[in-house]
Amino acid sequence: GYEQYKVKKYDQAVGLYTYAIQFYPDNAEAYYWRGQAYCYQRELQSAYDDFKQSISLNPRYFHSYLSIDWVLAQSKQWDTIIVYWTKYIKLEPKDGRAYRERGGAHYQKGDLKAALADAKRAADLGDEEGRKQYERLNNVVK
Hints:
Mean pLDDT: 97
Number of helices: 9
Order of helices and strands: HHHHHHHHH
Radius of gyration: 17 Å
Shape: elongated
Helix content: over 70%
Largest sheet: none
Oligomer: single chain
Strand content: under 5%
Structural class: mainly alpha
Distance between the termini: 49 Å
């Protein structure tokens, strides 16, 4: 499936990942990659369903959260994105990038104080982009 994905044959990739999932239904990565292929086909509901399944099978799989964030951002579902990142952060509280990503959803939602707090936490955890985000937001929120 991944070989087909790399050469942008997304229909074939979806078919091969579907086949793999039939034999290995607990494979979070297969759902993730099929979801990626669905994204390129603009089948966002199918992609969302696969990323959600990937997270349920492996709640610490960061890239599935990142991808579900992207899918939900297409329809501005900021609150749902925040819920997903909060779930991930509870499992991985030292992941600075997760705070930065959640902060981005807060920012898009218009909650600048929450965005600033997440950027600060990301910066405190050593995330360089989080530090830059914190500096930019700190000037705006003041």
